[in-house]
Amino acid sequence: MIIFLIGLVILIVGGAIYGKFCEKVFGPDDRDTPATTLADGVDYVAMKPWKNKLIELLNIAGTGPILGPIQGILFGPIAFITIPVGCVLAGALHDYFVGMISMRNSGAQIPKMMYKFMGNGATKIYTVIIWILMLLTGVVFIYTPGDLIVGDIMGMDVKGNVIWIVYAVILLYYVISTIFPIDQIIGRIYPIFGAVLIISAIGVFVGVMLDGGANMPALNSGLLTQHPKGQSFIPVFFITVACGIMSGFHGSQATLISRTVKHEKEGRHTFYTMMLVEGAIAMIWAAGAMVLFGRGTDTVTGATQMVGIISREFMGTIGGLFAIAGVIVLPITSGDTAFRALRLMIAEQFNIDQKDAKKRVGLSLIIFIPAILILIYAKSSPGGFNLLWRYFGFTNQLVAVFALAMIVVYLKTAGRNYLIALLPGTFYTFIVFSYIFHEKIGFGLEARIGEMFGIADTSYAISYTLGAICAVLFLWLVPKLASKRKDIILNYKM
């Protein structure tokens, strides 16, 4: 309990101090924002500050900040320190600068900003990855809420025919929210969703506090524990708990809200502070899981199943259903904007006018075809969802590395403190590449070499070495790129 409370203090106090520092580095002023200068009644719509903050929170808070921490807490209480520290120094910084840079560049989506600051080569790679991530995110956020609705709310078999009806209803909502103006659907129903989300998180928090730490490890028992499946804390923890610490997906959502913020000085609370709130949600659900593991709940229980167990344990049958509803809200309010962001990215790439309703509908339908095919595969294949989630986690963090590189270039070009983005970018480069070099969904280097020599090598020696080389290259090359592109960037017109 002490470690959990220390983590909350780091998140709140550290976030308040560092958030102001990030704001000072960026330097918001009183200039007109895209919400007013480019108002089109569809995507560029000035909205009230409280509504922007709530929509940003619901956009970024998918199932990641709940399912990820529930799995991450299996590494021990260290999660209560790494989540807030990472959120303050990396995740919230990432969200703030992406949103503010977009606001300074006509509300551009990240691929367009990537072209300006990183050049054509990086943009081509990034665009492919971000489009894949948006599709995977949308599919994951049809799959998980659908299964929670059918399994935990309706008490039915998630492999039966009913699940496809529920998937179809969620997909229909996504189609509508993707096509309609942002203030007509998302702007109106999100306050209701937000209330459900906040109340469910408060309910779990109260349950954890009433437990009093009786079922949490003592402070002297060590921060890091052996994972039940023998997974390595670095890099697996930071891939697993991605959304609660830092998520590249958030960049695609911050650029949506950059088109609805009326004043630049609203940016810190809209982008930075809302990521801190997501970090708090991640810590609360991680604490709930740790309490139940301390009471004897099997640590191999799936993360989705743990959501229902935690909810009912701390809030009773009725309250538990309400808490589950809060968890269902999270992916739905991220899935709709994932598809919306993908529509805008493709529209920018091919100059498709989004004021034209027919073009909006046509482009949206094209997007949903591959999404449906991926969903069918994930549901019909025995290991389909696990594979989908792993690729989602990896691409999510890889996209964040690209965004941090872009922030470095922006800050260095503007003559500002770029180290605040360079250092977390270097760390996450190591995490992302050491993970993909080691894991079977990537190169599986140690396993392959072990097979060649007839040994069971489960170490990360090769992957850590290659990951470190990639990190050094990031640390060296990104600032050089900023210096090389300075004149191009200063003369570039969006």
UniProtKB/TrEMBL annotation:
Membrane topology: Multi-pass membrane protein
Cell compartments where the protein resides: Cell membrane
UniProt protein name: Carbon starvation protein CstA
Signal peptide: none
InterPro entries: CstA, CstA_N
Single Gene Ontology BP annotation: cellular response to starvation
Protein's organism: Anaerocolumna aminovalerica
Keyword Transmembrane listed: yes
Residue ranges of domain CstA N-terminal in the record: 1-142, 167-292, 302-431
Pfam family, any one: CstA
Domain of life (superkingdom): Bacteria
Record-stated family: Belongs to the peptide transporter carbon starvation (CstA) (TC 2.A.114) family.
Transmembrane region(s): 78-103, 124-143, 163-182, 189-210, 230-249, 270-294, 314-339, 360-378, 390-411, 418-438, 458-478
Gene Ontology CC, one term: plasma membrane
Main location (coarse class): membrane
